[in-house]
Amino acid sequence: MAELRAVDVADPAGVAALAVEIRADLVVIGPEAPLVAGVADAVRAKGIAAFGPSAEAARLEGSKTFAKDVMTAAGVPTARAYTCVDEASTAAALDEFGPPYVVKNDGLAAGKGVVVTDDRAAALRHARECGRVVVEEYLAGPEVSLFVVTDGEAAVPLLPAQDFKRVGDGDSGPNTGGMGAYAPLPWAPPGLVDEVMADVVHPTLAEMRRRGTPFAGLLYVGLAMTADGPRVIEFNARFGDPETQVVLALLETPLGGLLHAAATGTLADHPPLRWRDGAAVTVVVAADNYPGAPRTGDVITGADRPGVIHAGTARRAADGALLSAGGRVVCGTATGPTLAAARDAAYALVGGIGLAGSHHRTDIAAAAVDGRITIPR
Ligand code: AMP
Ligand code: GLY
Predict the structure, then answer these.
(1) For 120, left (φ over 0), alpha (ψ -120 to 50), or beta?
(2) I need a labelling partner for 202 at 20 to 30 A (CA). Which of 25, 157, 220, 302 fits?
(3) In the Cβ-directed half-sphere of 270, how many Cα atoms lie within 13 Å?
(4) What is the residue range of 170's domain?
């Protein structure tokens, strides 16, 4: 049984008071804004277990410059980068790296603060709008999202997944929060997860401990599989959307016990994870005009089915009708014995959803099913 309570999720004192009131055994903090605001610290200060990093440690996501600094100190492979605060230094960095240009807002941007473009003027414009940016070298190669549950010391990887960031088929159009995902990755080299744990995750956790700000929670490692090996594109301090839908669809081990172990520093004693055989695919149904300001308030049909996971929906008070209330509205998530079967099942769910003006990608997991994903060499 779940009960929805009105609390400002980014208000540390408010969330901590609610946790005390309901005598919570575990508080799981989902999005980045409350983590950066220190909600996990406030809950822990009341003696209640919280899954999610401290405000200090959440800077791995909250500041691109901070993340680069930690990676450099830890010797983690990532794109070369400059932090720029004015037009001249931005232009110099763009010209040093050449196109495609990668310009990232230095603060939190809910996955949408990044512009990757061949258009130098557009890159400069984005930098001007952001103020403080990180300009970095372009990493060529397929992307991997690896989620790692950690108590600051012990670390348990989940299955690697792939996300689709661009709004349109064939990776066209602007970046979004993510339009679909699948797991596991049939094309991933054997040993990839072990390599990332050894070269990225453990050095990063060690560096965070060394700084006196251990990272406990979910370390999301976004990687590009380049000709020179896996390179970190970004860290997030939370589960990613929509990769989580496919990763958790395959996890048989109860999630609560795993997160509780991470929150209480006992992850080393947690039994190995059990995974379902087969694959999972999720396809996001987005509102008209997303990733621009989305049109909302339209009636959604066909979304009351198992496997349809809601993100931007609301109930109309008058009659309980389901309405769109955000950019990414719902996603159709399915598992299957093969990636192809999971993909067909996910698209069958999406095909049954009615929402005026909505759009979705038609090629989620298609290249992986067809064996068309290759790592550059
Ligand atoms: P981020 O918010 O840092 O994950 O960036 C969002 C998306 O932009 C990534 O998932 C990539 O698709 C793309 N991107 C970011 N940085 C780079 C890079 N250095 N090289 C190539 N693509 C990138
Ligand atoms: N799927 C990318 C993110 O959650 O940031």
Answers:
(1) alpha
(2) 25
(3) 26
(4) 143-267
Same domain for 174 and 131:
no
Name the residue with the closest Cα to ligand 2, atom 4: 240
Same domain, 111 and 96: yes
Cα angle value 91/79/223 (rounded, 5°): 135
Distance CA 130, CA 25 (A): 40
Cβ atoms of 254 and 265 closer than 8 Å: no
Burial class (CB in 10 A: 0-12, 13-18, 19+), 298: middle
| Model confidence pLDDT, tens digit, residues 161-194 | 999 999 999 999 988 999 999 999 999 999 999 9
- Give the pairing type, strands 143-150 and 114-117: unpaired
C-alpha of residue 238 to centroid of ligand 2, in Å: 9
Substitution candidate for ligand 2 out of 114, 163, 221, 309 with most atoms within 8 A of CB? 163
- Give the tens place of pLDDT for each residue, 297-307: 999 999 999 99
